[in-house]
Design goal:
alpha+beta, globular, 3 helices, 217 residues, 6-stranded mixed β-sheet, single chain
Length: 217
């Protein structure tokens, strides 16, 4: 299983995924996560199409385009400790000229207090283990306010090696192979420690089901 040691600089860590290049498709690395993300994108697109305004229709089209992109989905795995936080921010586009960056966030472990804000207002969402959230990461200011530990639930029941941990898997549109020049907008600057050689990271996503919650922003 993937292991980590204390990082004195930050309370979140990038876990290694073994991608051959930055932005490579996740399909061969975490296939369960990709399937769950595809389901979340489909649900979010359907939800937007039920709304009467034109902006919602444009969002639905953008989400559907992300889900059907021939390059597939790429992503990162972020592990948060009990004091884990991330400053509110918006994401840069994966590809030059993009107007939207639809992203799926899958959450495993402790509940995360996740802030979202756009021109429609702001709020802090309590995202529990097994929840999925879909958002336009270029338009929505987002960040991690904190981790809420439920000491009445054993770590083994949260599919993580210790209490107080939260795993966030973020997936978005993958990049073509590096033979096609694209702007690098995400990096792996945090310390990483070991590969998920036995596939245990992927098996965590079995806890998600078709009933998992999907929020669209």
């Amino acid at each position: 299983a993937a292991t980590v040691t204390r990082n004195d600089r930050k309370e979140s860590l990038h876990l290694p995924t073994g991608l051959p290049y930055v932005g490579a498709p996740f399909a061969d690395v975490l296939p369960h996560a990709v399937r769950l993300a595809q389901g979340a994108l489909a649900a979010a697109s359907a939800s937007f199409r039920k709304r009467p305004d034109g902006r919602a229709a444009a969002c639905a089209d953008g989400i559907a385009e992300t889900a059907s992109d021939p390059c597939g989905l790429t992503g990162v795995c972020l592990l948060y400790g009990p004091r884990g936080k991330m400053a509110a921010h918006t994401d840069a586009p994966t590809r030059p000229g993009q107007q939207q960056e639809w992203l799926v966030m899958l959450s495993v472990g402790e509940t995360v207090m996740f802030s979202v804000a756009d021109r429609g207002g702001s709020e802090v969402l309590r995202i529990k283990s097994g929840d999925a959230l879909v958002m336009d990461a270029m338009a929505v200011m987002h960040g991690v306010e904190g981790i809420e530990t439920d000491r009445n639930v054993r770590a083994s029941e949260k599919f993580l090696p210790a209490a107080g941990l939260r795993l966030g898997v973020l997936l978005w549109r993958a990049a073509p192979p590096p033979s096609v020049k694209l702007a690098r907008t995400r990096s792996n600057e945090d310390d990483v420690f070991s590969e998920d050689e036995d596939g245990s990271l992927d098996s965590m996503f079995n806890l998600f089901s078709e009933e998992s919650s999907c929020s669209d922003t």
